[in-house]
Structures are given as structure tokens and as C-alpha cells.
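Priority: low. Protein: Putative ABC transport system permease protein. Input follows.
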Amino acid sequence: MSALMARLPVPLRFALRELRGGVKGFYVFLACLALGVAAVAAVGSVRLAISEGLAREGRAILGGDAEVEFTYRFPEPAERAWLHARTQAVSETVDFRSMVVADSPLTGQVERGLTQVRSVDAAYPLVGAVELSPPMALEEALGERDGRWGVALEPLLIERLGVAVGDAVRLGAQTYELRAAIDRVPDAAAGGLGLGPRTLVLTEALEGSQLLSPGSLYETEVRLALAPGDDPAALGRAFAQDFPDAGARWRDRSDPAPGVQRFVDRIGAFLILVGLAALAVGGVGVAAAVRSYLDEKTATIATLKTLGATGRTIFAVYLAQIGALAALGVAIGLLLGGVGPALIGPIFADSLPVPALFSIYARPMLEAALYGVLTALAFALWPLARAREVRAAALFRDVADPLKGWPATRDLLAIAALAALLVGSAVALSGAWLFAAWFAAGAIAALVVLWLAAQGLRRAALWGARRRAMRGRPALRLALASLAGPGGETVGAALSLGLGLTVLAAIGQVDHNLRQLVADELPSRSPAFFFVDIQNDQLGRFLETVERERVDSVETAPMLRGVVTRLDGVPAAEAEIDPDAAWVLRGDRGVSYAAARPEGAELTEGAWWAADYAGPPLVSFSDEHGRQLGLELGDTITVNVLGREITATVANFRRVDFRDMGINFLMILDPGAFQGAPHTHIATVYAPREAEGALLRAVGGAFANVTAVSVRDAITRVSDGLGQLAAAARWGAGVTLLTGLVVLIGAAAAGARRRTYEAAVLKTLGAARGRILASFALRAGLTGAAAGVVALAFGALAAWAVIVFVMDAAFSFSAASALAVVVGGALASLLAGLAFAWGPLSARPARVLRARE
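Result:
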């Protein structure tokens, strides 16, 4: 071993010998790096596990190798024949919303519940199996028995209706027997978010139910099983070429649930950036730990300088030590965040709504390791560069702050290069480069502002300590003087705790505003129900039925659904549009028609067509979304409605505000554009809450095919979704805050030696323990409160930018969340300070002062 050591370069030999003494003083260093790396690695591993799960189970999730979706129609015979001729198996399912009704034996009343119905054929499912309770084959659960068809409902719906297996339930005008509860359907993730629990029924059993009448709102999904080696994407291109006007949407097993994947990618990118914020906070801890360690090594460095060691040798010795410890910290983080999910994830995999293939993935671990190494080097380089400048004279002097000052220009350039590489890596690898760039800019700005605030606090403390008003308040004066003094903990505490609180403050304000947007900012007069699928011949009777109840008002409009296929002649997939409007082209959109301008419609440009207009199709488009799509007056937009391409010229733009919860459409065409097209009507009914039950019973009893959507239930589902997102964001922010607390504790521990000397001097001068303790407490509390105030200001600014520019909503400041951040910051700093105050207070002054001689 000694022979091997002798062959090593001198700096490395010195570094290894010092490391033999253990990692005392570097626990904070290791904890900060490990937490940040673990956060980034864990989020990246979970995101990749879900992506790999979706890819591996893509065929099962989709229900086949490919799917063709037709909007509110069944495939034409030619389309069906084309698909059957080129595939091994075909299954047709129909997806729509409806009301399920039952005479509940439990309540003795007629109960109704909104449900997402999937009607299937005998071939369903092509892949996987439906799991039912009690266990039985799907054909047994849904088939005809004793003249009655069967259905299967999700347990939540069964509980809501108060029925049991064997009871009768009604869909539309047809009565069915409840045969089983749905435990699992293999293609649940591909269906997206429904407005109600799932119901399974055979498509042939819907005959006579009046639910799939012409113009009703439903989607037909044709699942395809291909021969081995067939390319589903190529088959999709061929279908589009042979049926260019079909208006069908094609997807295959490579991307079975695009909505789920987009959500996972976005929330994953956000949480990785929050993990990087934790690393940034950890970087402050790294710098503080390295500085504290090198402070204690001042005598060693001075001795080496006296013996002829150059500044370069000193730098190399301690850089080797920092590098070795950084590797250890990164390894611990990778073990926690990379290996941990692979071991723990399978335990929770079955409870996830999407498949996840948990394993050890190299990419997120490599990314996390890169971030960890760059962070350690970028933040450690400053104190390392200053250690190189320690003079041999420091060995014979009691230097208060040997590492004070600025590094050389070459070192500043190296630090800047490492920081740029760290930010550039985060932007390039996050998967959301624009968001990552803004996030990185915000984090850097927050660090700068917090550093400036710490300097301002020091100056303010110095000014306050000298005021006449401080006479007679020795504890407060001592606390202020300590905050202002050199080598204090003000800067480190403000940076570490402040950045963690900034992230938490921003998330708290965003969460408050999103909830207020859903709850408080809804119009004071919002509808009780949306009623859909009202047939043309039912409209008059529907209005009569509704108006007999205690309702305030009713609004109706004809409704169709269409897919935008071209914008001014350019295929929608190739059009250059604002990313905020991509959702308009992603699926089918509501379309209506009107001869006269709807009441309350405000035109922003152009004019409405004449009531008796009979020319080429014209369209009125939402002003905001039309501009985002790049449309101008006179441009054309092509919409596929029920398999028919309609190209309309933009006649006017109008203001549309979906937040008023009324009937709003992106597109309203002239009546002639839909001449003879089958369609239904939608109605919004405004009624007091106490009248909702009677209204629902009246409409449900008179119109079996009409579906009621409760606005209150829809808002609750949105609020629950926002709550889940906020919870995920708070967990991410919690890692950042935890890292900040570790840094804060480390700073308090590192300052124990200085506080011990300070307490000894004060005791010698006659100060009581209580007064010294009060001074320490005030110092810590003021530092935390100042960090909290700055974090609150910067976090509120970040939240304002998200709400105003991303969510396009008005910002509202949450005082409760703000108070929690400031009080939490002061309390955290106070507790950390007090935890390390008892040792200095109990030390004997004579022993402490004698040791400094």
C-alpha cells in the first residue's frame, strides 16, 4: 500500500492522507448533494418507468396494434371492409356519456348517475382481459339471458345507485340486468378522463335504447390486430390516403395514451426542475461546508506554504478531496433516487392508474450524476480558489476570515463556465427547454436577490445596532451586531433557507390561485346542469318540461362535433400555430350554427351574415383562439363533421369566455353549412340548488336518452385534479426545503465554535446565560424572517408570472400562504440556531479563552 502511495502525485497523496481522518465536517456536503441528486434521479426514473410501461404495454392499453376513431358515426361499409381486409382481427367499441337509472332497494327511490358507457362487440378485448366481480366471462356478464341483456358497472357507480348484482338498471329507454362489478379493463388508460364511472354493455344490446340516434354524441373506436411484422404507422398512412375525407383519427401502440404521456412528461419536467432547485440549495450547502472545512485547515495550509507548497499544489490537494467526497455524495444520491424506485416501485405499481416498468435506468442516473458533479464543482470552486491564496503568515496570526475576498479572474471564469454548463444541461435534458430556461433564470435571479438581501440585512443590522434606541436592549443589540459582523451566518442562512422557501412560496401562491380560479372566480350565476343529446323533435317538449320546474333560465343551441383538418388550405398537422392553441387541433371541437348573431355575442372584427344568407359556408371564430391559429378575416378553415369536409370562410371574430360556464363555441357557422346534417341540441339550465333534484327527475323521467352533466360535480373533479397536482408539486418543493434545512443546520453547526468563543467573552463581561441565549435566538429568528420575506416576494413574483402569462388569469395574493412562509422561515432558523446554542452556553469561559491564547 505504501509503495502504491509513493507512486501517486504529491497532491493526491496529501489528499488521501487527510481523508483517512474521516469525513467530519462534510456531512452537510454529502447530505446536500445526496438529496438533490436523489430527487432528480427519482423523478427521472419514475417518469421513464411510466414511459417504458406505456411502450411495453402499448398494445394492451390501446386494445390492439392500432385504433381508428370516428367522431359521432360508425365506419362506412367501405371503410370497414378496408380495415378487415388488412388486419387479422377487428373490434368495434362505442364510447359515450349517459345516465344510468335504477329503482334502488337501498333507498327506496329512483337513483340516477352519470356514466361513461363503453359498448363492445363479441371480439372485445383484442388484447388482455376484463376482470369482473364475481369472476365470469365478459360474454356471460353482458349477454342476453331470459330476454334481458346484462351490464357491468364500476363499484363507485353501484354504490351511488344503491343496487346490487342481479338488480335492474336502465340505460336510455332499455332495461338491463346488473351482472357484475368492473374490477379492471385493459384499455382504461387509453380512454382518457371520463366524466363518470365506467359502464360496459354490448353494442347490439343498445338497440331500442335511443342512445345512439343520428346526431348523438359518441365516438366509435375500431381496434385492429395486425400480423407480425406489419407496420401500424404505414397502415395508418395508407388509410388516410384512401379515405382522405373520413375525418378519422389514427393512433397505434407506439403512443397508446398520448394524453397520459404528455401529462407525465410535463409534470416530470417540472419536478426535475424542482429537484435542480434542491441541488442549487445544496450547492449553497456545498460552498458553506467547503468554506468551513478550509477555515479549519488554515493552519495546515499555512504550514504547507511555509514548507514550500505552491498555491497550485494546495488547490490540487483540496480539489482531490472535494472530488472524492462529491463522488461519494452523488453515489449515495443515485442509490436513493435511482435504485430506490426500482426496489420500492413494484410494491405500488398495481395502484398506479397507468402501467409502470420499474427498473434501474441509466439515463436519469447519468443526468442526475452530471447535475450533482457540476453543482459540487461550481459551488466548491470559490472557497477552493480563495484557499490557494492563504499566506504562510496566517500560521502566526489569528485570522478572523482567511477565505474572505474574491477569487482570481481565471477562477471566476471557470465558475461561470461550470454554471453555464449546469444550466445548459438542465435546459437541454429536461424535455421542456423553454420552461427549463425560465426556471433556471428564475433560480439564478432568486440566488442573486437573496444574496443582495443578505448583504442588505447585514447593513441594516449594523445601522440598527448603533442606534440610540438599542440602549437598554443588550440581547437585541448583540444579535444585530452579530448579524452585521464578518464571518456571520447571515448570507448562508438567507441563501439556503430562502431558496427553499421561494419554491414553496411560489407553489403555495399558484395553488391558491388555481383553486380560486375554479371556485371563487366562477361566475356568480353558473348553470346547474348541461343537458346533451336533445333530439330535434324533443326540443320543444324538453323546454316545456324544464320550465315547469323552478328554474331561473334555459339556454339552448344546436350542437355538432367536428375535427379541424385544414387552416387556410394548410393541413392542420403542418400549420404554424401558437403552442397555446394546439389543443384546438388535437381532438374534436364543438360546432354550432345560427342565422342571427347570438344574444350577448360581442364581435371584435368583421360582421355577421344576413339572416337569409344562402351562399358558401361562413364561420364566426373565437377571437383569441383564431389569432393563436394565425387566422384572419377571409381565411378558410376546414372542419370534418360526420365524415363530411366543410370549408368555411372566416366572416368575423367574436369574444368567447369559457369561464362564464354558458354555451360557448369556438366555431359558429351559418345554417346552410349544415343543411340536412343530423345533430342534437345542448341546453344549460340555471336553477337554485334546492330545485336540482326535482329538475333531474323530471328530465330523466321524460327523456331517457338525454344526459345531464352536473356542473358542480365537474368542478369538484377539476378541483380534485388540481389538488393532486399541487400535492405532487409540494412534495417536490419539500425536497428543496429539506435541503435548505440541512444547509441551515450545517451552518449552525459550523458556527458553534465561533458562538462558543462569543459566549465565553460575554460571560467574562458579566452577561447572564438567558441574555446570551436570547441574543442567539433573536439572531436566528431575524435571519429566518428576512429570508422568508425575500422568498415570499420572489415566490409571489414567480407565481404571478405563471398565473398571468401561462394560465392567462388574474393573480390574487394569498395572505395565509404568505404568513406561513415567513413564520415557517423564522421558526426553522430559530430552531436550528437554538439546537446548537446549548453547547456554547455550557462551555467554561476560562478553558475557551485559554485555548485561544
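The mean pLDDT is 78. The first strand starts at residue 66 and ends at 71.
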